[in-house]
Amino acid sequence: MTREHLLPENDATGKQSVLDRYDLWGQYVYGFLLRALSSPSLAAELTVSVFDAFREAKETGLTDLLARARETAVAALQTANELRLQEATNFDFRMAQRQSSDDGLLLNEKLGKAQSALEPKCKTILEMAYFNGLSQKEIEGALNLPDGSTGTRLRRAVNDLRRVFALN
């Protein structure tokens, strides 16, 4: 995002006012768009387009710029949602189902090997943490374990699973 993008090729009169507005409020408009869109490149591109839309306006305040930035962000999000919706309607479910069943068989085979590779203590803690959503403190309380041992066993279980999945 640079100031030079805001300058028309042959404009000497509005040049300074556009740059002044950009210097004064550009960071606020960019920050607003970045927060709304979570994409630095898109926020920079849209910041330039927002200031470009107000090139001819003599008096433009931050409120006007932010309102235009909001409209631009909403339009960009709507376009992205329309693209996602279009991709979802064109999705080939039969192909995905065949692929997922093949992947599912392979995954079940790996999970079976992984379960046999885990120690019973680690397996129980892994299930409580990841499948039941319990915190380490809750697991320690439920299993009457000393402080810190849950984290160690959980780390050991995850490392064992990584080893099993890396070998296959």
Description:
The chain is mostly helical. The protein folds into 2 domains: 87 residues, Rna Polymerase Sigma Factor, Chain: A (Orthogonal Bundle), CATH 1.10.1740; 74 residues, Orthogonal Bundle (Arc Repressor Mutant, subunit A), CATH 1.10.10.10. The protein contains 7 helices and no strands. The longest helix is centred in the middle third of the chain and has 28 residues.
The secondary structure category is mainly alpha
Q: Tell me the span between the first and last alpha carbons.
A: 47 Å
- Residue runs with pLDDT of under 50 for 5 or more positions: none
Question: What is the CATH topology of the largest domain?
Answer: Rna Polymerase Sigma Factor, Chain: A
Using the CA coordinates, give the radius of gyration.
Answer: 27 Å
Topology:
Layout: H1 15-37, H2 40-53, H3 62-89, H4 93-117, H5 120-131, H6 136-143, H7 149-167
Helix pairs in contact: 1-2, 1-3, 2-3, 4-7, 5-7
Compact summary:
By secondary structure, the protein is mostly helical. It has 7 helices and no strands.
List keywords for this structure.
168 residues; mainly alpha; Rna Polymerase Sigma Factor, Chain: A; Arc Repressor Mutant, subunit A; 2 domains
